Every structure is written in structure tokens, then in C-alpha cells.
Amino acid sequence: MNKSLLRQESSHYFIEDVKLTDIAQKFGTPAYVYSKKHILDQINFLQNALSDIDHLICFAVKANSNLSILKLFKECGCGFDIVSGGELQRVLTVDSLNSKIVFSGVGKSVSEIEMALNNNILAFNVESEEELFRINDISQRLSKIAKVSIRVNPNVDAKTHPYISTGLKDNKFGIDETSAIKLYKKAAKLDHIKITGIDCHIGSQLTDLSPFEDAFIKLASLIDELESNQIAVEHIDIGGGIGISYNNEDISPIDFYVQMIKKYLLKYNKKIILEPGRFLIGKAGLMLTNVEYIKKSEHKNFVLVDAAMNDLMRPSLYNAFHEVINLSNTQDSNDIFDIVGPICETGDFLAKDRNIKANQGDILAIMDAGAYGFSMSSNYNSRPRVPEIIVDKDEFYLIRERENFSDLIAHEEKFLK
Ligand code: LLP
């Protein structure tokens, strides 16, 4: 069992001091639930581990972009890693004067760049030559100076799921090392660009953190080469990617990661920017779902629940494992079930081949869903998106309400003829 988030007392499960079934009763299911304490503990843990390094943690907004969650990160002194105009506006909604935003992503549009420049973000993580020139042009038009890092693609294997590996030369992200140096030289000549950093993000959900070592070595040699060309950076952005354990995987200790930062990057005396998402919030959240039916056949058994792939896409998309706990019945079963939703696709599953005893009306917790859970959810099959709830000691409250049918048709109804 995931011991860090849930506490079991007799036959009840608690997050902090709140019984999970009370939340299901009050707000219904499916629903996402987060622990405020768990999030704060993760931030503190990382900040402490980095305490003798000049650093800035920029939370990767894509992992969980709920405004109340972003506000929590802001209050802890974090900056933000954004990848769209929408994410920028979310951050500005909770922190209008935020100057700690780094903007990543391969396809920044003109309007997104304008918005970012007008809000004086900390850095654009530039991913192509064309993007650099586009930023320079816009920044000239707006009479601004854009602060940029070049995102280097170090061609290292992050040993993670291919869909979330980003640092290989075949991936669409970043710029290879040789071209990066050339681009820095071009950037140095542009009037409306100020080079402030170097950036790298090799992938997500790294359980073995050793691929960072290769990336840091390559970053270090690039910084040396830049310095020999009189190009100085103020910060080194090492991206996100620290993995969490979903299925008892061994995770390299954070100390190992910190030691690598110290070994390869500290000598440059620059600020180290990190862009963690999953590590800070992945294990702080779960999704509650109700058992609708038990369907058994000779070949296969199913627990049919009210949550589906539109609510939590990770199992369908990456075959990702999420532990499932029956909060209403803790007994073991001799039967093996797939836990599936009501969507009309065979790929609509939340878990496969689980030993679980469940009855109609039981409440299940789909664990470790705090990152890339709600933020990747959709309205597929005209399913309203589910509420998000935060637990704070013995209290719990909504931070996003359940959508309703009016929300689903809000942008269509007026076009009915
Ligand atoms: N920085 C950049 C530039 C990124 O692209 C990402 C994630 C992060 C930081 C944060 O990575 P993290 O620390 O969370 O690993 N939907 C997938 C994950 C996609 C990650 C995309 N980029 C999943 O559910 O596993």
C-alpha cells in the first residue's frame, strides 16, 4: 500500500485527518483528492536537499494546473515552467507579478511570445533557430529585450516510456550540441535577445537518475565552450523528470541527483533552475471512483467503475500502472479483475489483472494520480470533468467543481439554428 498518502485506521482510510469515504459522500465520484501536507512536504524535501545550491524550483504547470495548487507553489517561493499561453495566464492569475517563469515548448506562437514578453518572464527556453528569430522580431516590435536559454538536446537515453523521453536526437525537442553553440553565437548578435541561460530536459518519470549524469556532463562541456567564446549564462536549467514509484519501482535517491548537480555544475557558480512536476505532486493525489457493476465471465472479470480513460488517461495512453485500493473492502480476493470505465473503447481501462475484492457501491482509490491526472482529462463521451478537492488536516474543500451539462455545451448552444 502507498503508505505515505493514506493512513488506515481499523477499516477506514484517511488522507491527513479526513476519511476518504466522507469526501466521496459529500462530493460524489469520480473525484480527484489531494493532500496539502503531502505537497508541502515534497516541496520542503526538495528545497532542503538543494539548500547549499543557489536554486529555483519552477513547478511544471502541465503536471497539475489547478489554480489553488499553483497558488500553493507560489506561496512556497516556487517559480513555474509553462508551455502555453493558457498556462501563463493561469500562473498570472495567482501571481500577477511573477518574474519566475520559464517558457518551454517547441511551438510557441506569436501571441504566446507577445504575452510572455509583456509579462517579463524569466526566460524563454528556445527550441529552434526559427523560434529564436521569431522571439527577436517580436521583442524588437515591442521594444523589449527577451531573456533566452537554448534548450540543448544532449542525445541521452532517459530509459523511460518512449512517449515521454525527450532527450534523444530523434525527439522533436531541443537543439543538438553542435548546432546549439552556433545558435548561441547568432543569439549573441541579436539586439533584442539577452542570453541568460542554458536548458535541458531529457524526459519524464526517470526512476534511474543516472542518465542525468550524462546530460550534466554535456551541459558542462557546452558551458565551457560558451565561456571560451565569451558567452556567459546566468543560470543552468536542468529540467524536470525525477520519477516516483507507482509500482514499488526502485527510485534513485534525491541525494544522488543533488550530488551530480554539485559534481558537474556547481563550479560555474550559476543559479540552478529545476522544472519538476510529477515529483512534487504525483503521489499527493488520488482519484476516487465508485463501483457500478461486477461483470464476470469464463475468460475475464471486470470491475466496472464510474471513472474512465477521459478522467485518467495514463493507463490507456502509456499502459501506466496505478495502484488501486478498495476503500470499502480490504479483504483479498482470489479473482483477478480488470478495472474499466464506461467509455466505448477497449482501451478504456484504469488497471489490469488486479487481485481485488469489490462489490457494487464500493469506493476505490486510484493512487498516485496527482500529476498528469486531472490536467490530461477530457470531455470524451460527453462526460463532465470531475471535481478536485484538497484535504488540509481535518478539513476538505473543493478547488474545482464538477462540470455540468451546461459547461459541456457552453460553446455550441448559441450556434444551434
Ligand atoms: N520540463 C519540461 C520541458 C517538460 O516537458 C516536462 C514534462 C517537465 C519539465 C516536467 O517533467 P516531470 O518532472 O513531471 O517529469 N503525461 C506524461 C508526462 C509528460 C511529461 C511532459 N513533460 C505522464 O503522464 O507520465
TrEMBL record:
<dbReference type="GO" id="GO:0030170">
    <property type="term" value="F:pyridoxal phosphate binding"/>
</dbReference>
<dbReference type="Pfam" id="PF02784">
    <property type="entry name" value="Orn_Arg_deC_N"/>
</dbReference>
<feature type="binding site">
    <location>
        <position position="345"/>
    </location>
    <ligand>
        <name>substrate</name>
    </ligand>
</feature>
<dbReference type="InterPro" id="IPR009006">
    <property type="entry name" value="Ala_racemase/Decarboxylase_C"/>
</dbReference>
<feature type="binding site">
    <location>
        <position position="372"/>
    </location>
    <ligand>
        <name>substrate</name>
    </ligand>
</feature>
<dbReference type="InterPro" id="IPR022644">
    <property type="entry name" value="De-COase2_N"/>
</dbReference>
<dbReference type="InterPro" id="IPR029066">
    <property type="entry name" value="PLP-binding_barrel"/>
</dbReference>
<keyword id="KW-0663">Pyridoxal phosphate</keyword>
<dbReference type="GO" id="GO:0008836">
    <property type="term" value="F:diaminopimelate decarboxylase activity"/>
</dbReference>
<feature type="active site" description="Proton donor">
    <location>
        <position position="344"/>
    </location>
</feature>
<comment type="function">
    <text>Specifically catalyzes the decarboxylation of meso-diaminopimelate (meso-DAP) to L-lysine.</text>
</comment>
<feature type="binding site">
    <location>
        <position position="372"/>
    </location>
    <ligand>
        <name>pyridoxal 5'-phosphate</name>
    </ligand>
</feature>
<protein>
    <recommendedName>
        <fullName>Diaminopimelate decarboxylase</fullName>
        <ecNumber>4.1.1.20</ecNumber>
    </recommendedName>
</protein>
<feature type="binding site">
    <location>
        <position position="278"/>
    </location>
    <ligand>
        <name>substrate</name>
    </ligand>
</feature>
<dbReference type="Pfam" id="PF00278">
    <property type="entry name" value="Orn_DAP_Arg_deC"/>
</dbReference>
<dbReference type="InterPro" id="IPR002986">
    <property type="entry name" value="DAP_deCOOHase_LysA"/>
</dbReference>
<feature type="binding site">
    <location>
        <position position="241"/>
    </location>
    <ligand>
        <name>pyridoxal 5'-phosphate</name>
    </ligand>
</feature>
<feature type="modified residue" description="N6-(pyridoxal phosphate)lysine">
    <location>
        <position position="62"/>
    </location>
</feature>
<dbReference type="GO" id="GO:0009089">
    <property type="term" value="P:lysine biosynthetic process via diaminopimelate"/>
</dbReference>
<feature type="domain" description="Orn/DAP/Arg decarboxylase 2 N-terminal">
    <location>
        <begin position="38"/>
        <end position="281"/>
    </location>
</feature>
<dbReference type="InterPro" id="IPR000183">
    <property type="entry name" value="Orn/DAP/Arg_de-COase"/>
</dbReference>
<feature type="domain" description="Orn/DAP/Arg decarboxylase 2 C-terminal">
    <location>
        <begin position="32"/>
        <end position="370"/>
    </location>
</feature>
<feature type="binding site">
    <location>
        <begin position="275"/>
        <end position="278"/>
    </location>
    <ligand>
        <name>pyridoxal 5'-phosphate</name>
    </ligand>
</feature>
<comment type="subunit">
    <text>Homodimer.</text>
</comment>
<keyword id="KW-0028">Amino-acid biosynthesis</keyword>
<keyword id="KW-0210">Decarboxylase</keyword>
<dbReference type="InterPro" id="IPR022643">
    <property type="entry name" value="De-COase2_C"/>
</dbReference>
<dbReference type="InterPro" id="IPR022657">
    <property type="entry name" value="De-COase2_CS"/>
</dbReference>
<feature type="binding site">
    <location>
        <position position="314"/>
    </location>
    <ligand>
        <name>substrate</name>
    </ligand>
</feature>
<keyword id="KW-0457">Lysine biosynthesis</keyword>
<comment type="pathway">
    <text>Amino-acid biosynthesis; L-lysine biosynthesis via DAP pathway; L-lysine from DL-2,6-diaminopimelate: step 1/1.</text>
</comment>
<comment type="similarity">
    <text>Belongs to the Orn/Lys/Arg decarboxylase class-II family. LysA subfamily.</text>
</comment>
<keyword id="KW-0456">Lyase</keyword>
<feature type="binding site">
    <location>
        <position position="318"/>
    </location>
    <ligand>
        <name>substrate</name>
    </ligand>
</feature>
